[in-house]
Amino acid sequence: MKPWQKIVLYLAIVYFVLLLGPIAGLDLPRILKEIAQSPSLLITQLLVGLINGAIIAIIALGYTLVYGIIELINFAHGDLYMLGGFAALTVVGAFGMQDGAPFISAIIPMLVALLVAAGMCAGLNVLTERYAYRPLRNAPRLAPLISAIGMSFIFQNLGLFWGGLRSFIPIMGNTAAAPKSFPDLLPRIDIFRSLGIDTKVDFTTKDLIVLVVAVVLMVSLNWFVQNTSAGKAMRAVAQNRDAAKIVGLDVDRVIVLTFLIGGALAGAAGLLVGLYNNTIVFTMGFTAGLRAFTAAVLGGIGNITGAMLGGVLIGLLSALSDQYLSSRWTDAWVFGVLVLILVFRPSGLLGENLQEKV
Amino acid sequence: MLELIDVHTYYGNIQALKGISIHVEPGEVVTLIGSNGAGKTTTLRTIQGLLRPRQGKILFEGQDLSSSSSPEIVRLGIAQSPEGRMIFPRMTVLENLEMGAFHRQDKAGIQADMERVFTLFPRLQERIKQKGGTLSGGEQQMLAIARALMARPRLLLLDEPSMGLAPMLVNQIFSIIHEISDQGTTILLVEQNARMALTVANRGYVLQTGEIVLTGSAKELQVNETVRKAYLGEE
């Protein structure tokens, strides 16, 4: 058999298993019928996927930046994002914000929440690098990886502890481990209908704001890395650390900067997810982190555009799976993608293998 | 200008330099020749602060470098074109050159140096927007030297600039090295191609398993019996 015939055969087998098996229900005729009956639902789901994907992409950037510079999968990154959500909720609560607070009065609390969440996560990330990763920089690869998993547990427990501080932070609610409801502060004006377009597609100002903030963050990061001298130094260290030392770059400072930026993005994503999904929980960093990691690998780890693309694709896949397959199996689909990518294209969609000439 | 006094460098427990002493005077081209593994690259890496000498002193214009970091050493005026070129493969030629001048603030000076390296290497100007990794081996070598020059060094360290290049390109690179020296930059040149190295150098040292075994003017070394047999391949 030729290789492509093999692939087709495998795909066919996998398809029938998924179709007939009780699990994932990949029944294409049924799905196509549903889409034909209500195309606007598909578009709504694509928008939801796009927005969640943009948030995943912001987290994925933190993985990919750090991996690009020191080849470490920073497993604590997802939990850092969770702590960003908790910081944002604390700030919003301290301002006395509640569901349905007028948008105008919520602007300043949200901006402060953004600064506090981003600042705290940036600081935590830098401290983590300094005390948990840097001492292991010349150790075997496995050592900092285990250190990162340890930091992930520490952050999760910090989140659990934080969630139990109801006497200081009433907005945390009664149970430490329970999901916290995040006040719904963004206005929900239906954009298409208020423009007089008659459609069943839901797209509100809330969606738009989250999407715009996420895109602005990604575009500015990309601009920073491509055009500023600090960003160029980051790329130089990522491409050849020895050469960066030889031209006189302070490699440690560049690494600190990378953790700072990655952490700030995680904090911002924590606020965004709170505002968008209106619920946060101390375990959310684990799944979100794995999804973002998948996104980073899908796009090509170390590649900034790849992380953004991967994030959006994972977001779309999750939304479509939630709608047309079964939300219980969404994670299985997402991590199935991770397995497929690692097996068939470990360098990712946009990963480049530019050989250095000798 | 540069003086190494009894420098010992180790990789872990393996001693790579066994007490070498060399000196480079302003305006000179000095070459270190020797076979693979003699310690030539180790010497340059030690001068640049990438490796620490376990014993001995490195003086640059009277200042001890043995505890300075590489960024400080570059700022003091020592730049290197490393072995294997080590350009940044996914950055453009222009960005690679900018990295060479990373620590400098004088925009006008950087611009002037940019023009200077483009006069030396017109090929790089033609490829200014191209990614470093897509250049040919010879062009990458030019880029590595040009990047080092962008630091406006007073001492330029060149590590195997002829490695892997076609003979015609080797001649071209060496005539450029000559030109750089004429413009007043002091050069410490490490080479396996002893014949070419001795044509541009004023003086030379012969390095063998981490020790200096021979030193003299380039003319003396060219006619020296041992050098001719071991490094110039003559009978």
Automatic annotation (TrEMBL), chain A:
One of its GO terms (molecular function) is L-valine transmembrane transporter activity. Keywords: Amino-acid transport, Cell inner membrane, Cell membrane, Membrane, Transmembrane, Transmembrane helix, Transport. Belongs to the binding-protein-dependent transport system permease family. LivHM subfamily. This is Branched-chain amino acid ABC transporter permease. It holds the Pfam family BPD_transp_2. CDD domains: TM_PBP1_LivH_like. GO terms for cellular component: plasma membrane. The chain crosses the membrane at residues 7-26, 46-68, 80-97, 103-127, 139-162, 208-225, 254-276, 296-320, 332-351. One of its GO terms (biological process) is L-alanine transport. It comes from the Bacteria. It is found in: Cell membrane. It is a multi-pass membrane protein.
